[in-house]
Design a protein that fits this description.
Blueprint lengths: L9 E4 L1 H11 L3 H9 L3 E4 L4 E7 L3 E9 L4 E9 L1
Parallel strand pairs: 1-5
Antiparallel strand pairs: 2-3, 3-4, 4-5
Length: 81
């Protein structure tokens, strides 16, 4: 499913995602980590980008990028729907 372990990798979020989506959804970093771990669909959209569909307090899509050299997952943006 993922080339990384959502429970142990480093997790970063973009400033835009943190200030808009995480705040309006009422999420914090443990919620985000749980959502990535319990994703119901993951599609690869490039060499290191993924679209992740999660069902945590509704249906949401996250766009994440994975950096293999630093084992860091960066959440770029998210949508509801």
């Amino acid at each position: 499913m993922y080339p990384f372990d959502p429970g142990s990798c480093n997790l970063r979020v973009s400033k835009h995602f943190r200030n808009t989506k995480m705040r309006s959804w009422g999420w914090d970093y443990p919620d985000l980590r749980d959502a990535l771990a319990e994703a119901h669909q993951v599609d690869r959209r490039g060499r290191s980008k993924f679209e992740v569909w999660v069902r945590k307090r509704g249906s949401r899509k996250l766009v994440v990028a994975y950096d293999k050299s630093t084992d860091t997952v960066t959440v770029i943006t998210g949508t509801e729907g």
